[in-house]
Specification:
By secondary structure, this protein is mainly β. The chain has strands at 20-23, 32-35, 78-86, 91-94, 97-101, 107-110, 112-119, 126-132, 141-146, 152-157, 164-167, 170-174, 179-181, 186-194, 197-206, 218-222. Strands 5-4-7-8 form a four-stranded antiparallel β-sheet, with no helix packed on it. A four-stranded antiparallel β-sheet has the order 12-11-14-15, with no helix packed on it.
């Protein structure tokens, strides 16, 4: 009788370019070549069509928290206030009332927010609000300020045309317009030159003492 034939599957030949590896087979079964899977390739868009742009959403920054206002305490009762001004005497107004000149020991005022105005012929006027605590013994509440002096003015008279001015050795050009001196408590040297000749020397001291050129005042230097 004819011997029956067994159907044996035939492995497909690997495609050109595929890498062939040995497929481990169970014991007793001879290994057979297996085609390795080729790596995936990026999908290209059809010709004539542009891929849609990738939209990246930006993170929206959260708004910063509002700053917390620091509330000043509401003072009541009676208070004592001392105003100390360096380098000058000033007139003190509290809530629009004249309370005298510095230096002073202290002033009796209601506790709380007080409007304070400092006035002097020599300094720039200053107005501010001070929250004064009630007096509970010891020293009074003290305000210390150093105010800006008003500039002094120097004018000139009778100098010949072409006279040049130097102040502390620095050329200030032709004598004519007034000069403002903003620094107090110092000496200035004025030199007047006509050609190569010095026709006048003048020393000016600014300050708030007797004999000084006072802040806010003016001096006229005349040619002799």
């Amino acid at each position: 009788a004819p011997v029956p034939m067994l159907a044996v599957p035939v492995a497909e030949a690997p495609a050109p370019g595929d890498r062939v590896v040995d497929d481990p087979a169970p014991a007793g079964i001879q290994g057979r070549p297996v085609a390795a899977v080729a790596p995936s390739r990026p999908v290209q868009p059809p010709p004539g069509r542009t891929p849609a742009p990738v939209v990246v959403e930006e993170a929206v920054a959260e708004p910063s928290p509002e700053p917390v206002a620091v509330l000043e305490p509401e003072y009541t009762g009676a208070a004592r206030l001392r105003v100390v001004i360096h380098d000058a005497r000033v007139q003190v107004f509290i809530d629009g009332q004249d309370r005298g000149w510095t230096p002073m020991s202290y002033l009796e005022v209601p506790a709380g927010k007080r409007e304070i105005r400092l006035v002097s012929p020599y300094t720039q006027e200053v107005t501010f609000v001070e929250n004064v605590p009630p007096f509970s013994g010891g020293d009074p509440h003290e305000i210390q300020r150093r105010l800006d002096f008003k500039p002094a003015t120097v004018r000139f008279s009778g100098f010949p045309d072409g006279t040049r001015l130097k102040i502390d050795g620095r050329d200030r050009g032709l004598v004519g317009e007034p000069v403002l001196l903003e620094e107090m408590k110092r000496d200035y040297t004025f030199t007047f030159e006509l050609g190569d000749e010095v026709i006048r020397l003048e020393s000016v001291h600014t300050g708030i003492e007797d004999g000084d050129l006072l802040p806010g005042n003016q001096l006229v230097i005349r040619h002799r």
